[in-house]
Amino acid sequence: MSKKTIKYFVLGGIAVVLMLLCSIGYSVLFNQSRLVEPTDFNTYHFIIQDTPMVLSGLFLFLYVIVLIYQIVKAIASKKTNDNQHTRTISPKLGYLGFAGFMGFSGFLTYSIDHTLFPFIFFTFFGFFGFFYEGKLSNILRDELFILNEKKAELSAYKIGFIILFFMIWLIGMGLFRNNTEWIAIFMVITVSCIYALVLFLSKYLLYRYETKEY
Amino acid sequence: MDNEFTCNLKTYRTLAGLTQEQLADCVGVRRETIMRLEKAQYNPSLKLAIDISRAVNAPIEDIFIFK
Fold first, then answer.
1. What share of chain A is helix, strand, coil (3-state, %, to 5)?
2. Quick one: closest CA in A to B46, which residue?
3. pLDDT at B1
4. Which residues in A lie closer than 8 A to residue B41 (C-beta atoms)?
5. Contact present, A163 and A197 (Cβ < 8 Å)
6. Is A140 in contact with B36 (Cβ distance < 8 A)?
7. Total structural domains in chain A?
8. What is the pLDDT of residues A181-193, one digit of tens each?
9. Would you state the pLDDT for residue A79?
10. What sign does the dihedral A76-A78-A84-A88 (CA atoms) show?
């Protein structure tokens, strides 16, 4: 998206918000807050004084639709343009992997109110892969790189599936004596960790293949 | 699979007076890829093989010899 387009969108957004604020003001002061307070549309009948609120609502809706369309278009075009080179990221982003330790908070929340959700944070361990991805920043994605990338991803998926199979096998064999809650916890932790491992390994193995000395 | 062929790229590249970097730029790959090709550690795609053959002005079957 060009700077000019962004400028137009910002100005358009400000105009739409101002129009909406004016309409709300008009409705509150002169139209008994119609369409500002919660409205039951089953019994709603349009009157001419509702026009500012209807129009500003319509403009807001159109603005959001066009904005979403432009953002999606810009992302798609960026992807197409940058496809030739790897993305530029700092290896320091790898430190985000430490956020994976937040997964241990799941034990605390489970003991308090049986919430399993925080265990999902174990997936953040996968961010350690940014360390290796950062080292391969902004390099040409030629056919050897793409080949290595696919090889690394395939190896990572293979390792992930093998571990997943063993975990399912262990549960199937009666680990946790068919205690459903413990099985649920175990599966959430396992799947999160496997996901993190696959994310990490695909970047790590790619780095290894790319820097391998012959 | 990597060692199923021999590669005479280095010879023809030198004859053409190109450095690895120049050849890489010419065919749109990285220098590392040319380096690995010269060591016959990487089996290139047909397109890359043809591009290289044109860049060093030598027949493709003389550069890449499959056993």
1. 80, 0, 20
2. A143
3. 46
4. 214
5. yes
6. no
7. 2
8. 889 999 999 999 9
9. 65
10. negative
Chain B positions touching A143 (Cβ under 8 A) are 29, 33, 44-45, 48
B46-56 helix and B20-27 helix, angle to the nearest 10 degrees: 120
Nearest CA to CA, how far is A84 from chain B (Å)? 10
Map out the domains of chain B with their CATH numbers. 5-66 (1.10.260.40)
Interatomic CA distance for residues A186 and A182, integer angstroms: 6
Q: Please give the residue range of the domain that contains residue A119.
A: 91-211
- Chain B residues with CB under 8 Å of A139 CB are 30
Residue among A142, A210, A214 whose CB faces B28 most closely = A142
Closest-CA distance, A141 to chain B, in angstroms, reads 8
Please give, rounded to a whole number of angstroms, the shortest distance from the CA of A71 to a CA of chain B: 31
Compute the average pLDDT of residues B40-58: 92
Q: What is the ipTM of this complex?
A: 0.85
Q: A154 and A209 in contact (C-beta within 8 Å)?
A: no
How near does any CA of chain A get to the CA of B29, in Å?
5
Mean pLDDT of A34-43: 82
The pLDDT of residue B3 is 52
Residues A72 and A100 reside in one and the same domain: no
Residue A115 Cα distances to A19, A97, A108, A109, A111, angstroms: 44, 23, 9, 5, 8
Question: Which among A142, A210, A214 is the nearest to B29, CB-wise?
Answer: A142
Q: How many residues can be counted in chain A?
A: 214
Of the residues A51, A83, A115, the one at which a domain ends:
A83
Q: Is the pLDDT of residue A124 over 60?
A: yes
* Cα gap B10→A209, rounded to integer Å: 23
Q: For residue A154, which amino acid is it?
A: L
Contacts of A171 (CB under 8 A, 6+ apart): A183, A186, A187
